[in-house]
Design a protein that fits this description.
Elements lengths: L3 E8 L8 E9 L9 E5 L13 H9 L10 E3 L2 H15 L5 E4 L3 H12 L11 E3 H7 L13 H16 L3
Parallel strand pairs: 1-5, 3-4, 5-6
Antiparallel strand pairs: 1-2, 2-3
């Protein structure tokens, strides 16, 4: 079981109903040490299903990046239903009543919750579990950051876990 689960997503927009391209998930113990790591990639033909949206601004931003919203090393899902099912598998394995679910900003969980609601499913976390890394940064002076501009959901989640450990445990 995990004390912490860090989630990062990549999308094609900035709304709750944005097309999700990737989800990175890193369960960790009480010292923020990695227990496992997952990269779930929604197949491109999935992006335009379940009433997901795109924005031209985000598509142009992706074109300017050194990588694409796809990865060559993920667990690929062929529908958003399979994506949510995979999330449930991970949460069923690692989540407890005491697990803290971390994201960098609220949008990531709102996007996942939106697709769960579209599929008539509950989000795999309890309402009291989410925490925002950006809020923690507000309270800790001189928050240590580590450079990471890969825009890969798993790499970003691992980097966020590294920051949490550096600032909440190693200080």
């Amino acid at each position: 079981m995990a004390k912490h689960i860090v989630i990062d997503i990549e999308t094609l927009g900035r709304r709750n109903d944005a097309a999700i391209t990737q989800i990175g998930i890193v369960p960790a113990d009480e010292n923020f040490d990695v227990l496992d790591r997952y990269l779930i990639q929604a197949e491109p033909k999935t992006w335009n299903t379940c009433e997901r949206t795109f924005t031209g601004e985000t598509l142009l931003w992706w074109i300017q990046q050194k990588n694409s919203p796809e990865s060559n090393k993920p667990h690929i899902v062929h529908s958003y239903k399979f994506l949510v099912d995979k999330l449930y598998q991970i949460f069923n394995r690692y989540n407890t009543e005491d697990t803290i679910v971390w994201t960098k900003g609220a949008m990531d969980l709102f996007c996942i919750k939106d697709i769960c609601e579209y599929l008539n499913m509950e989000a795999p976390w309890k309402f009291w579990q989410p925490r925002d890394i950006r809020t923690a940064k507000e309270f800790i002076k001189e928050w240590k950051t580590f450079e990471n501009n890969n825009h890969n959901a798993l790499d970003d989640a691992l980097n966020q876990l590294r920051e949490l450990k550096a600032n909440l445990i190693e200080r």
